[in-house]
Amino acid sequence: MFSRHKKLKIVSGNANPALANEICQYLGVPLGAAKVSRFSDGEIRVRIEENVRGADVFVIQPTGHPINENLMELLIMIDALKRASARRITAVMPYFGYARQDRKTRAREPITAKLVANLLMASGVQRVITMDLHAGQIQGFFDIPVDHLPAGPILAEYLMRRQLEDVVVVSPDVGGVVRARELAERIGAPLAVIDKRRPEPNVAEIIHVIGPVQGKTAVILDDIIDTAGTITEGSQALVDFGAKAVYVCCTHPILSGPAIDRLKNSVVEEVIVTNTIPIPPERLLPKIKVLSVAPLLGETIIRVHEDLSVSKLFD
């Protein structure tokens, strides 16, 4: 497909090589020869093993677990590409780590998402492609173009194929209402909201459910499932309020700590996620369905490379 575009290069770190290979298969280009390893003392060693002078290079590297390792790999790869005279370097970060630290909530706290943006720009990156940022304003932390892609169309397509009956889309909190409303409009379903409070990080207390859930198939939509406390407690609350079944959708399956046990023992029928973050095989429950974002990222790369509109993908 892109044999005539000799200046397009795709390289990958160790964060999600399977996704990078899927993207390359979609584009019809080989994965670039880049090796990321470790010195004996643990320092990261990057070797770009092909000519990238004058090339338009896309680095596929979500910054999920282990987040600091993956972030440093990305920064060092960008520096190596810049010193190798790449024409343009784009960081493709399907999952943007530290996005939940986007503001100060109390005195003497950092804004780590802004720090990460500064580090990326200092490394020499010229564009960022990411998906479903936890806080959309993080785009403004950069002084370079940021393409912010939604996973909603991918999730909506799958849900429509499932032909679920009497669906209501549920936002797990007030902050996710816009995202949930967009999905509800795509699949032609009403909207409900879980009213909760967070006494401390990774702890949620359900207070009320606002909207029609009695006798409905509830589809909870969130950008991230981390420890799965919010999702499992919210799902139980929906059943208690009369929902006949609960499905869960999210873009980024972090699934840390007790998440797998909580999901396994929950009332959730199916957990629909994307492959922005790889899930280890031993943690892939039968009720987890993984959808690929490779075609979406591949189309975005084509459009960025050819200087076409990215937003047209979602018209």
What does this entry show, briefly?
With 315 residues, the protein is α/β, with parallel strands linked by helices. Helices cover 29% and strands 27% of the residues. The two termini are 24 Å apart.
Low-pLDDT parts are none
What's the total number of strands? 14
Structural class based on helices, strands and sheet pairing: alpha/beta
The radius of gyration over CA amounts to 20 Å
Order of strands, main sheet, comes to 10-9-8-11-12-13-14
What is the typical, i.e. mean, pLDDT? 94
Quaternary structure type: single chain
State the end-to-end CA separation: 24 Å
Beta-strand portion reads 25-35%
Helix content: 25-40%
- Describe the global form: globular
What series of H and E elements makes up the topology? EHEEEHEHEEHEHEEEHEHEEH
* Biggest sheet features: 7 strands, mixed
Count of individual helical segments? 8
Describe the structure.
This protein is an alpha/beta fold. The protein has helices at residues 17-27, 67-83, 112-123, 152-162, 177-187, 229-240, 259-264, 294-305, and strands at residues 8-12, 34-38, 44-48, 56-60, 88-93, 127-131, 146-149, 167-171, 191-200, 203-210, 217-225, 245-253, 270-274, 288-291. The strands form 3 sheets. It has a 7-stranded mixed sheet. Helix 3 (112-123) links the parallel strand 5 (88-93) and strand 6 (127-131). Helix 1 (17-27) crosses helix 8 (294-305) and helix 4 (152-162) crosses helix 5. The longest helix has 17 residues, at 67-83. The model has no long low-confidence stretch (mean pLDDT 94).
Element layout with pairings:
Elements: E1 8-12, H1 17-27, E2 34-38, E3 44-48, E4 56-60, H2 67-83, E5 88-93, H3 112-123, E6 127-131, E7 146-149, H4 152-162, E8 167-171, H5 177-187, E9 191-200, E10 203-210, E11 217-225, H6 229-240, E12 245-253, H7 259-264, E13 270-274, E14 288-291, H8 294-305
